[in-house]
Amino acid sequence: xxxxxxxxxxxxxxxxxxxxxxxxxxxxxxxxxxxxxxxxxxxxxxxxxxxxxxxxxxxxxxxxxxxxxxxxxxxxxxxxxxxxxxxxxxxxxxxxxxxxxxxxxxxxxxxxxxxxxxxxxxxxxxxxxxxxxxxxxxxxxxxxxxxxxxxxxxxxxxxxxxxxxxxxxxxxxxxxxxxxxxxxxxxxxxxxxxxxxxxxxxxxxxxxxxxxxxxxxxxxxxxxxxxxxxxxxxxxxxxxxxxxxxxxxxxxxxxxxxxxxxxxxxxxxxxxxxxxxxxxxxxxxxxxxxxxxxxxxxxxxxxxxxxxxxxxxxxxxxxxxxxxxxxxxxxxxxx
Length: 335
Prior knowledge:
Layout: E1 17-22, H1 24-29, H2 31-40, E2 45-47, E3 60-63, E4 69-72, E5 80-83, H3 101-117, E6 124-129, H4 133-140, H5 142-151, H6 154-176, E7 181-185, H7 198-204, H8 206-218, E8 222-226, H9 235-241, E9 245-247, H10 255-261, E10 267-271, H11 277-280, H12 283-297, E11 304-310, H13 316-329
Parallel strand pairs: 1-2, 1-11, 6-7, 7-8, 8-9, 9-10, 10-11
Antiparallel strand pairs: 3-4, 4-5
Helix pairs in contact: 2-13, 3-6, 4-5, 6-8, 8-9, 12-13
């Protein structure tokens, strides 16, 4: 993306980068409209074209490297863990975490290829969606995990250390290969609260985050965290732990809370609502919401990205309204 008033590499900081990820079924149905929309809105990146033979299109099951069995509904949608390798703590003595050797070797190969093809281009390291908090629920099962938290089970803290050790080594490998940003996803919130108390989160998860975020910051890089759900109670903790980019949802956290707690402190990659306004509102309401987000969280100094996920059921008129509003207002703070 380039700003129409500025050549590549010369964009002023007030530009709001906008990224729209479109589910493959939506792209299939509205391919012509979306291709035309991309032509009309060249500063907004539309992505989501999905190969017809992609396994993500059909329902299937798969076991991950941690031993969790996943069920995927197809349609390009995320899956759900249905078998948990540590649903009984008695299994811990025989369970082995995944080795870091193969993923680290792949990171090195990928870095070498990028360096050969684009030696001057900065690159980002990617960790899993299911970083630490979610991974613990996948390994134990959500109900077991919640009981462990309530009881402050020492085995849970031991398991958290094992998971953190793994991601520490993977993160270090990305940094060793020159990554300037490392990103992960960990959905920490429910619709209107945290699933565990802020105090429990600070005891269990915050030390793990601080350990990895500190490594990244010490190496002069940044850490970006995607997290769905209500996280208002722990935004200051995330920043204190060393986070540099936060991808929160807008309505469940409230733009006013994001201004109060995060604006000017971290880069906000705002996740645009897909539960209410963009799914059930009018195109006019969608456009007004995009403008409000940019006016409220943007600034001449920058610090804002908009991220919009489009899934089946979202009216194409609302998708068009959102993207056209992004195109119209992405340079609001530099006009």
